[in-house]
Amino acid sequence: MTDSVGREAQYEVFADEFADHAANGFHNAHYDRPACLELLGDVAGRRVLDAACGPGLYAAELVARGAQVVGCDISERMVELASDRVPRADFRVHDLADPLDWLPDGSVDLVLLALALEYLDDRVAALREFHRVLRPGGALVLSRQHPTGDWLRLGGNYFEPRVVAETWSRGWQVRYWTTPLELTCEELYRAGFVVERLWEPRPTEAAAAISPERYERLHREPSGFLAIRALPR
C-alpha cells in the first residue's frame, strides 16, 4: 500500500447514498454535527468556510443560524447536492490539496473541517491555508476519527501514521490516514494554530432511540470521533 491517499474524490461514487444516510444517521446527525456546531459557537453574521462540505448538511445548519457560508468539496456530486440543499451558500469544487486561491487573506471568520482531515496527504499545507484565510479573532473547528478507536479496531503501531483501506458497512470503499493524536496537535501547531479545546463528544439523547448499543458504547469508549477548536497564534 502506498503512503498516500491521493486526489481521488472517494465519496463521488456514493455521494447520494451518503447524503441520505448522513442526514439523520446516528454518527453524523446525533454525534459529529452537534459537536462541531457547539464548538463553532454563535455564527450569526459570521462568514464560515465549510471545507470538504459534503452534501451541505453542516452548511444548512450554519445558514439556519445566521451564518454566511462558502464551501468546497473535491466531489462534483457533493457540491451539486450541497448547492441544492443550501442555495443561499456559495459552493465550488476544490481539492484541499491545492491552495484556496479563490479566498483572500483574512476573508472568513470561521473554518469548519468535519471528518475530512484524514483524507489529506499534506495536512499541514491545508491547515496553513485555513490559517491564511482566517480573520484575526477567528477559529478553526475540525473533527476526525478518534485515533484510539482506530488503534483498538485496527491494531498495529499506534504512533505510526499509515494509510488504511476499508470497506464500510454499506459497501463504501475508502482509504484514509490514521495518525496519533499528538501528530494532529503537532500539525496544527506547525500550521500556526494552538488548540483551545479538545472534545471527545458523546451522542445526543436522541441517538439512544436509534441505537441504544452504540449510544452506550460511545459513552464509555473512545471508539468514535473527536473534535478540536484551534485558534491562530
Quick overview:
With 233 residues, the protein is of the alpha/beta class.
Description:
- This protein is an alpha/beta fold and 233 residues long.
- The chain has one domain (10-146, 181-228): Vaccinia Virus protein VP39 (Rossmann fold).
- Helices cover 35% and strands 26% of the residues.
- It contains 9 helices and 9 strands.
- The protein has helices at residues 15-24, 26-40, 57-64, 76-85, 123-133, 147-154, 181-190, 207-210, 212-217; strands at 47-51, 68-73, 90-93, 108-114, 134-145, 162-167, 173-178, 193-199, 225-232.
- The protein has a 7-stranded mixed β-sheet, sandwiched between helices. Strands 6-7 form a two-stranded antiparallel ribbon.
- It is globular.
- The chain starts with 14 loop residues before the first helix and ends with a strand.
- The mean pLDDT is 96.
- One of its GO terms (molecular function) is S-adenosylmethionine-dependent methyltransferase activity.
- Pfam families: Methyltransf_11.
- This is Class I SAM-dependent methyltransferase.
- Keywords: Methyltransferase, Transferase.
- One of its GO terms (biological process) is methylation.
Highest CATH level, the class: Alpha Beta
**Mean of residue pLDDT values:** 96
State the distance separating the first and last CA atoms.
Answer: 36 Å
Helix/strand-derived category reads alpha/beta
Summed up, the domain count is 1
Q: Based on Cα principal axes, name the global outline.
A: globular
